[in-house]
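hi support,

uploading two proteins for the ticket. first:
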Amino acid sequence: MTPTSQAKMAARYGEPDASPLAPWSDTIDLLLDHRSVRAFSSEPLPDGLIETLIAAAQSAATSSNLQVWSVVAVQEPERKARLSALAGNQAYIRQAPLFFVWLADLSRVSRIAAQQDVELQALPYLESLLLGTIDASLAAQNAVVALESLGLGSVYIGAIRNDIEGVAKELGLPAHVYPVFGLCVGYPSAELPGKVKPRLPQAAVLHHETYSAEPEPAAVADYDQRLGDFYQREGMKANGWSEQVVNRLHSAANLHGREHLVDQLTRMGFGLR
C-alpha cells in the first residue's frame, strides 16, 4: 500500500480520501493512470511502433483462437480528414499522427472456407458478429495499454460507426468486415493534457455472488457529485453522470446515424439471426 496507490485511487474515483490498493504493481499503476487524450504534440512516432502495438494486440485473448479481427493503420492526412468527416468531424482524428480503425473481420474465415469449398453455417448468426466485435475490443485495449507504457496517449472513436458503409468504402473493406471503432494515437500535448476522469464507485458495478441494485442509488448520487466537481474543475458544464446518461440515450437522434447499424450490417454481409 504505497502513496502512489492512494493517489491513483483518489484520481480514479474522484475521492481524496480513497483507500490505497493492495496488492499493487507497476501494471496496475499504469492501468489506473489511463485517460483519454484528445490533443497531440507534433513529436513523430518511433519507427516500428505500429508493429509493436499490433504484436501486443495479437497477444490478447481471442475466442477459440479464431482471431476474427483486423485493423487498418491510417497515417495519410487526406484519408484521416475524410474519416474525420465520417465520424462527426472530430479534429483529433486529423491531428493524431496515427489513426487505427479496428475491425470485426469475418471475411478471412470466409475466404478460408471458400478455398476448402465449405459453407460456414454459423457465420450468419449474431454470435459470430459478437465474436469479431469482442476480439477487436480485446485486441485494441491491449494496444492501448502497450502504447501508454511507451509514453503515448490515445482516444477511442465510437463515432466511426456513424456511417460504417462510408468508412468501409474509404478503407476498401470487403463483405463481412465492419469498423468497430477508431483509435487516435500520438504523444500527448503538454499544453492540453488529458485528465483522469473519475469512475463509478465500485459499489455500483461490483456484485458478490448475485446481482444486487440495492447499493446503486447511493453510489450513483455520490458519483453525480464527484463527476460534477471534476467537470467544474476542468471548466466544463458541471452535469452529474445521471443527467449525462439520460441526455445521451433519451433520443435515437443522439446515435448520429448509428440507429441504422442493423440495416447497414445486413447490406455489408452480416447475418443477425
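and the second one:
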Amino acid sequence: MNESQSPIRSVDRDRGDTLSGDDAAASHASQSTGEAGNPNLSPLEGGRWRPVSPDELLRRNTASSDPENDEASQQNQQRVRLQRRQELEHKLKANPTDLEGYLELAAIYRDEHRPIEAKRLLQQAKQIFPDDEQITWELEEAVLARSLQQLREVSDLAKRVNSADADRELERSRSDWAHRRMEVCRARLERDPSQVNYRLLLAEAKFDAELFDDAFDDAGRLVELDEYSAAAHFLRARCLLSNGKDLEAMKELRAVALRRAVVAPPALRRTALRHLVELSEKLSLPSTGKLYREQLNHVEQAIAAEQQSAAK
C-alpha cells in the first residue's frame, strides 16, 4: 500500500476545539483492505483500511426511511461476513502462505471490531511474509486500533466508576495510545522520511505523552511549511500553555489567528482567538484583549454565515 495515500489521520486541522491533550487522546486512529477503495473516503465509506479519526471509527446512526429493511440487510451482511470469515479461517489453516487470505480475514476481524484477532493474525502473517509492506502496514493499523479500543473501554468505565483504580487504568491507556502512535509514526518515517505529515502526528503523540519540550521542538521544524504551519504553531502553543508559559504561548497563538501569509482554517483561528482573549484577561492586557475580541467576532460571524449558506 502506498503510505502517502493513507496516512495516520490527525485531529482534523479544520477543527480548532481540540486544545486538550486528553480530549485528543480520547478521540484519535483504521478498515477495508488492499489497494481497493477510494483513498478520499473513510474506511466506513469504502475507503482503504487506515488509521482514522474517532468520528470515523464510531458507527454513525443515520436516519432510515425503512428501518426493517435496513435491519434485514444488516443481518444478511453479517451472515455473509460470518460465512466468509469461517471459510478463510479454514483456508488459512490448510494454506498458511495465502497472503490475500490473511489481508481479507484481518479486514473482516476489524469490521467486526475485533482488533485483537486482527493483530494476532497479522503477526502470524508477518512471520511468513517479513518484508511485505502491506502486512506491515495492516499490523500497525491493528495495533493502533486495539490501543484505541482499550482507551475507549477504559474511558467509559472511568465515567461510570469513580475510583482510583479506574483513574490509574485510564492514565495507563492514554499513555499506551500515545506511545503506540509514536512507534508507528517513527516506523513509517524510517521507511519513508518524505512523509512529512507523520512528523506532525509524532509531535501530537508526544504532546499526549506529556513530552511537551520534545513536541514543541518537533512542531518547530514544521512551522515554515505552509501546509502544516498553522497546526504546528497551535501545537507549540499547547506545549507552552502546558508548561505555564502564557506569554510565549500568545506569540504562537497570534501566528495561528492573525498571520496573513498563511491563513489558518476558520475554526482553528476561532479557537486561537478564544485563548488569546482568555490569556489577555488572565495577564491583565485589556487593550490587546479588545483587539482579539474584535477579531474573534469577525471570525465567528464568518463561520456562522458559512454554516447558514451550507444549510440552504
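thanks. also noticed: DSSP finds 13 helices and no strands in the chain.
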